[in-house]
Amino acid sequence: MARDRIDWRNIKNGRELPKEHYCDQPYAVITAEGHWLCVMTTGRGLEGESGQHVVSTISADKGLTWTALVDIEPAGGPEASWAMPLVVPGGRVYVFYLYNADNIRQVAGGHFDGEPGEVLHERVDTLGYMVFKYSDDHGRTWSAQRHTIPIRSFEIDRRNRHRGEVQYLWGVGKPMVQEGAVYIGFAKVGSFGPGWMAESEGAFLRSDNILEESDPTRIRWQTLPEGDFGLRAPLGPVGDEHNPVGLNDGSLYCTFRTVAGHNAQSYSRDGGRSWTKPEHAAYSPGGRAIKHPRAANFVKKFANGKYLLWYHNHGRSFIERPWLAYADRNPAWVSGGVERDGVIHWSQPEVLLYDDDPAVRISYPDFIEDGGDYYVTETQKEIARVHPIDKALLEGMWAQGERRQVDREGLLLELDREACASGASHALPGFGALSEGGSFSLELWLSMDSLAPGQVVADATDAAGQGFRLVTIEAGALRLELSDGRSGAYWDSDSGILRAGSLQHVAVIVDGGPKLILFVADGVLCDGGAQRQFGWGRFGPTLGTVGAAGRELAAAPSLNGRLHGLRLYGQAMTVSQAVAQHLAGMEG
Q1: 436 by DSSP, 3-state: which?
Q2: Is 5 part of any domain?
Q3: Last residue of a domain, which of 398, 426, 442?
Q4: DSSP state letter for 127
Q5: Distance CA 231, CA 201 (A)
Q6: In a 3-state reduction of DSSP, which class is residue 223?
Q7: CATH of the domain at 305
Q8: What is the rounded CA–CA span in Å between residue 64 and residue 58?
Q9: How many domains does the chain have?
């Protein structure tokens, strides 16, 4: 991102939505009159406390302003939670949500933090009935009567503490339409305990007539998949927040979260009646698994037939300590999806949103497509916002693998093979005021004769050590070292990205917005692999300028190999740009 622009990715630059205090799942639809209708779960207390209920609000100016909240359910009634909207062709708006209609006040289960023994939990927003209300005036008012959707019991229901007489469940899978039917994803919970939902699996509600049936009592519902079991995690007892999407070939795709360090995926080729065995989601069939903690991971299909996946691009197994897997939801990453032969292929990811405070958790998004523009809503549980998305970011991901060109915007220095081999130093302009949001990127073509640590690939430090250096370290990895003369930072690439005797492409991105260091090796963003949870690293907010004017860069001052080309940019490359320049080749 260029330094002289407002960084739209910073969530503080978004527009706030109205709420009481706690606010979650700000899901939006465009009504028949062209306005945005947002529904959410809110309350004056914290998540799960008494008084939690569902509300709606309308924007007539694409999220700039919003009307006062309208109660779909009042705060004084039983818990009403996890609202999901749907607009049908006739203009009616439905909202589906979980309702504790029996007003159960306690539920037994294990301790959240895994301590031995049991406790009576007073959180009762994850049990009851899936219900709906509707609006025939575009969300200004809601039907007085709520309607209950019958949900078929599975084996996981019959062995809960209430033996299935009370269902434990909740849903975040916004309704979607495929081949004339509506699908809603949700999770069935077997027990409460470590991490709250200690055991869960996914199911779907399908209606084949809600799009045209105006009598709510005549709407037909089916619980899927067929049989006695839902979609379960490949590893571990937790698989929830199932989010389905319709594919261009008529199939269904579902992604959901686990506690194993990856989201999971499954396909249905028969309208949801059966599903492929869930597996860890991968960027391509048989390829690298996507890393993701215990957080919302949603898929959205746009009008162009392409997809977007929201996730957090890091992960490790928390099967033994599932209550720890909720952390690190900042930044939020996305991958662009392109369908080939009935399978979604995901791009290398980009940062979509971040907060300056790493502890802030950004989650439960919804995507809006309106007039060719894209927007995203999100919440950090106490503030919900809407943000415009730079469509170039999405288009870049959708074009990965096809785009093969070198971008020159922000280019500060370019060295060819001869200049890299000359041994000369090259004067640099000022750049990299990182504490002020400045960024820079280093792109290299190199071939290594030896992978010994301690080789210097590029050095732009002065006698006092201020500047940056790129060096080799153990296990075929690279390290970027940064110093402003008072403080410093470093981050290592994944192990094994360097190979002796091969021509390779490496891009190092120092992004002063979210304060991240990224390595992209031969078109693949480092994600930590099996060795570590994170492939991207943070530097501190006080780290200042690392590229003072007049400093010189030495190319390959002590490299057992050859540097074939170098480019230095005074801005953060996108990952898509790094991929395109790798595919363009050394002479590109």
Answers
A1: helix
A2: no
A3: 398
A4: B
A5: 5
A6: strand
A7: 2.120.10.10
A8: 11
A9: 2
Please indicate, yes or no, whether residues 371 and 510 belong to a single structural domain of this protein. no
Is the pTM value of this prediction over 0.85? Answer: yes
Beta strand segments in 222-362, E: 222-224, 239-246, 252-258, 264-268, 279-280, 299-301, 307-311, 332-340, 343-346, 350-353
Q: Are residues 69 and 44 in the same domain?
A: yes
Give Cα separations from 303 to 85, 251, 306 (angstroms). Answer: 19, 17, 7
Q: Which residues contact 360 (CB under 8 A, 6 or more apart)?
A: 11, 329, 330, 380
Q: What is the pLDDT of residues 432-453, one digit of tens each?
A: 899 999 999 999 999 999 999 9
Alpha carbon distance, N-terminus to C-terminus of the chain:
23
Same domain, 335 and 444: no
**What is the identity of the amino acid at 79?**
E
Query: Residue 359 is part of which domain span?
Result: 11-398
Looking at the fold, whether 543 and 567 belong to one and the same domain comes out as yes
Is position 163 within any domain? yes
Segment 568-577 shows an average pLDDT of 98
**Cα angle, residue 326 at apex, residues 229 and 196 outer, rounded to 5°:** 55
Same-domain status, 390 and 488: no
Cβ-contact 190, 199 below 8 angstroms? yes
Distance between CA 390 and CA 215 in Å, rounded?
41
pLDDT in tens, 221-239: 999 999 999 999 999 999 9
CATH number at residue 477: 2.60.120.200
Annotate 229-248 with three-state secondary structure: CCECCCCCCCEEEEEEEECC
* 347 Cβ contact partners less than 8 Å away, ≥ 6 residues apart: 283, 335, 336, 337, 338, 397, 398, 400, 401, 576, 579
Tens digits of residue pLDDT in 304-331: 999 999 999 999 999 999 999 999 999 9
Tell whether 2 is covered by a domain: no
Mean pLDDT of the chain: 97
Tokens 């929201």 belong to residue: 310
DSSP state for residue 160 in the 8-state scheme: S
Is the Cβ–Cβ distance between 356 and 10 less than 8 Å? Answer: yes
Helix-then-strand count for the chain, H and E: 4, 42
Cα separation, 440 vs 413, in Å, equals 11
What percentage of the chain's residues is helix, strand, coil (to nearest 5)? 5, 45, 50
Strand order in the sheet with 93-99: 80-87, 93-99, 129-135, 147-148
Judged by average pLDDT, the poorest of 72-76, 79-83, 388-392, 544-548 is 544-548
In a domain, 179, yes or no: yes
